[in-house]
Amino acid sequence: MAVNTMSVEDAYALINALHAQVTGQNSIQATDLSSFVSVAQETLSAGYDAVLGAISQVLTKTMIAVRPYSRKFAGLEFTSDKWGAITRKINFIEGSTETDPTWTLTDGQSVDQYVIDKPKVLETHYYGSETYMDKYTVLTTQLDVAFSNPTEFAAFMSGVATHFSNMWEQWLENVSRQSLLNFMAGKINAGNVVYLLDEYNTATGQSLTPVSVKLPANYAAFMKWAYARVADLSRAMTERSEAYQTKITGKPIVRHTPVEDQRLFMLSSFLNSMKAEVQSGAYNDSFLNYAYTEDVTYWQAFNDPDKISITPVQLKADATLETGTAVAKSNIIGVLFDRDAIGYNIYQNEIVASPYNARGQYYNNFHHARVQTENDFTEKGIVLALTAA
Fold first, then answer.
1. Is 22 helix (H, G, I), strand (E, B) or coil?
2. Which one of 4, 131, 205, 328 is most buried, by most CB atoms within 10 A?
């Protein structure tokens, strides 16, 4: 048996049997590949050549098992900075109109055109940041015996650097995911959530559940309705109002979010179904595209893609913070929000090499950074779920 050993055997019988199946000469048969496929393993088997039986076999190829990884939620990154520790945001408070004296002028009286009406603003702040530090050691001579030439060694070191970068990318992804989850939980606590299936049942007089709605007789009609409902919500966010945002007591902040400034993050399973059911029937599907959409494989846990279990920090009506009610919610399919509502800043991001250690013949590369996550609940945001239950 040649598989996973250093010996060489003829596999003609197996190849002939497979060839007969793939070409239609024979029907499918139970085929044992355990003596054919080489599977990666940690153990290295040492063997000798088949002719003299005295010369050890040389490793012929080294594969560097790494590939670049790009973080999810990259669109949430704000401008990177090096200086400062506090981010401030200046908001403008809504005023009111006054009586126009133009049509009520009286003899012997004047109209004062210098009455002061100063701009009214509310300044909000983001504090704190998360630190990141990682390192890897570059060995300059110790690995020479493990590779057959300088090119192979260079490929290995390139793989080490790529792996180092991949860990940074995934750390940033996890940080931005936490920022997204906190915003979603805070918006649910604030009541800024739309239950699409509940609304659909009310509109149609049905009693569908998250399970029964997926039946072929129900799914297409619901997905088309849901697409239109999300488009309606997108349109509503373009209106200048206090809807879908935290209201600060005594300081009305009126906002609007143009379509090009909206971000829609949607569960990939739901988004793919929507595309299949809605866009497949459109002559020109460009008319059915939202402005900016990013599909999300899962919100918090890979094995429970549509669930979140988060205790958020959130904004109160008096513009102070509180620890919100714990949110344990399933059947969440998306979140629509203003681009300024969720994000993260990267500060002081740099990779620094240590001096060369002459005695040990190595040096270390250190990666340092600070990342600040940001949620602004005075910006518009709507969580999309199927049911309130």
1. helix
2. 4
Asked if residues 76 and 342 have their Cβ atoms less than 8 Å apart, the reply is yes
Q: Which residue has the tokens 């805070």?
A: 186
DSSP 287-331: GG--SSEEEES-SSBTTBTT-EEE--EEE-TTS-EEEPPPEEE--
Q: For residue 156, give the H/E element and its range.
A: helix 150-189
Give the whole-angstrom CA distance, residue 325 versus residue 342. 20
* Beta carbons of 275 and 227 less than 8 angstroms apart: no
Determine the Cα–Cα distance for residues 244 and 249; give it in Å rounded to an integer. Answer: 15
Which spans in 190-240 are helix H? 196-204, 216-237
pTM > 0.90: no
**H/E run at residue 188:** helix 150-189
Please state, in angstroms and rounded to a whole number, the distance separating the CA atoms of residues 132 and 112: 59
CA separation, residue 193 to residues 26, 225, 388 (Å): 58, 17, 9
Burial class from Cβ neighbours inside 10 Å (0-12, 13-18, 19+) for residue 267 reads buried
Q: Is 215 exposed, middle or buried (0-12, 13-18, 19+ CB in 10 A)?
A: exposed
Query: Residues 154-212: pLDDT tens digits?
Result: 888 888 889 989 999 998 888 889 989 999 999 999 999 999 999 999 999 999 999 99
> What backbone phi and psi angles, to 5 degrees, belong to 330?
-115, 180
Place of tokens 């019988």: 13
